[in-house]
UniProtKB/TrEMBL annotation:
PROSITE patterns listed in its UniProt record: THIOREDOXIN_2 (PS51352)
Cross-referenced Gene3D superfamilies: Glutaredoxin
This protein's name: TlpA family protein
Stretches assigned to the Thioredoxin domain: 53-182
Species annotation: Fodinicola feengrottensis
Family matches, as InterPro entries: AhpC/TSA, Thioredoxin-like_sf, Thioredoxin_domain
């Protein structure tokens, strides 16, 4: 009989310890939920800074050469240009590239700019996928084009007018409300 009483006492003690640990975990999860809601907002909108210049800012002057060997600068960007910044090894870049390519296919190739940050070997696959629908610039991290757009994260997307004014920007293409040409 004493063995049964001891077993019940041990099981009871373990149950109390388990209950206390579960209460601690629930409290910690509530704290983390509050922290996330503060950073992201209760509506789920991201309040962190945009991954590049925000709407209304003007991109800086830059010069670059496309993978086709053509010169590119802010002055050579005419009309509204759809811009995308990608880097190999970035999961969101890989996920959002097909939609970027789909959107770009609806526009004149000269009105689409894709910038791939990385070494030539690492970026070759991205360059090959983007080249048919966009002017592609391959540059190292923090290259002149990324610096001109204030890129601070990948992927980054923007619509820029002929004067270099950012009309829309974000890390998702849906934020741009890209107009389809007539």
């Amino acid at each position: 009989m004493s063995a049964v009483v001891a077993a019940v006492a041990v099981v009871g003690a373990l149950s109390v310890v388990n209950l206390l640990l579960c209460i601690g975990i629930v409290r910690r999860l509530r704290e983390h939920t509050e922290i996330l809601n503060t950073q992201l907002g209760d509506s789920g909108q991201n309040r962190r800074p945009a991954p590049m210049y925000a709407t209304g800012q003007r991109i800086a002057e830059f010069t670059a050469t496309t993978v086709d060997g053509a010169d590119l600068s802010r002055a050579l960007m005419t009309g509204t240009t759809m811009v995308g910044f990608f880097t190999p090894g970035c999961s969101p870049c890989k996920e959002r590239m097909p939609l970027f390519i789909e959107q770009a296919a609806n526009h004149d190739r000269d009105q689409v700019l894709a910038v791939v940050a990385g070494t030539p070997d690492a970026s070759a696959e991205y360059v090959a996928k983007l080249a048919p629908v966009a002017r592609v610039v391959r540059e190292n991290d923090n290259g002149p084009v990324a610096a001109a757009f204030g890129v601070d994260g990948f992927p980054s997307f923007a619509l820029v007018d002929a004067d270099g004014l950012v009309l829309a920007s974000g890390s998702k293409l849906g934020a741009l409300a890209i107009p389809v040409p007539a």
